[in-house]
Amino acid sequence: MLTLRNHIQFIITGVFILLAQVLIFSNTNLFSWLNPLVYSLFVFLFPTKNRMNLIIYSFILGLCLDTIFNTGGINAFALTFIAFIREPLWRSLSLIKEDKNSIATRTRSTNTFFFSVLILIFIHHLIIFSIENFNFATIHYLLFKVLLSSVITFSIILLLYSIFRIKIVNGEE
C-alpha cells in the first residue's frame, strides 16, 4: 500500500516529467517531424503492486498534457492504456512472478525489462500517431514514424536511466 509520502513523491515525479516534456522535449524536433514523448517514463517508475493508482495517475498526467497541447484526450488515452497493460505484459514476459504469499517479486533480467519498455513505448506511440493522423494511404509513413519515434524515445529514457540511476518498478535499483 502506498503511503502519503509515496503519493507525494509520485505527484512530484509526474510534475517534473510533465515539465520536462512541455519545456524541453516538445520543443525538440528531430528532422522537423519527430518529437520524443518521454513522459511515458512515468508508467515505468510506478510500483507494480498498485495498478489502479498507476492507471489513475497516468490518466491525470495524460489529461494535463492534453490540456496543455490541446490534443483532446489522445495522451490521456495512450498513457492510461499502457498503464493498464503494463502489468499483464510484464507477467507474460516473466518480469513479475507471484510467490505463495501473493507478493510480487521481481525476477527479471535487465534486457527483458528494457525490451518490455520498448514494446510499451511502441504501443504508446502507435496509439498517439494513429489517433492523430490515421490514413490507410500513408500507413507506411505512420509505421515508420512510430518506429523511429519509439527508438528515439527509448534511447532518451535509457540515457536518463543511466545518468540518474532512476529507481524503476518496486522502488529498487
SSE order, one letter for each helix or strand: HHHHEEHH
Average pLDDT confidence is 84
Q: Order of strands side by side in the largest beta sheet?
A: 1-2
CATH class: Mainly Alpha
Q: Specify the CATH architecture.
A: Orthogonal Bundle
Shape: globular
Q: How large is the radius of gyration? A: 16 Å
Query: Helix content range of the residues, please?
Result: 55-70%
The largest sheet, given as strand count, sense and whether it forms a barrel, is: 2 strands, antiparallel
H/I helix tally: 6
Query: What is the terminal separation in angstroms?
Result: 19 Å
Find the count of extended strands (DSSP E, 2+ residues): 2
Oligomer: single chain
What would you note in describing this structure?
- Strand 1 (96-98) and strand 2 (104-106) form a beta hairpin.
- The protein has one domain: Arp2/3 complex 21 kDa subunit ARPC3.
- A two-stranded antiparallel sheet has the order 1-2.
- The longest helix has 26 residues, at 139-164.
- It has 173 residues and is mainly alpha-helical.
- It has six helices and two strands; from the N terminus they run ααααββαα.
- The protein is globular, with a radius of gyration of 16 Å.
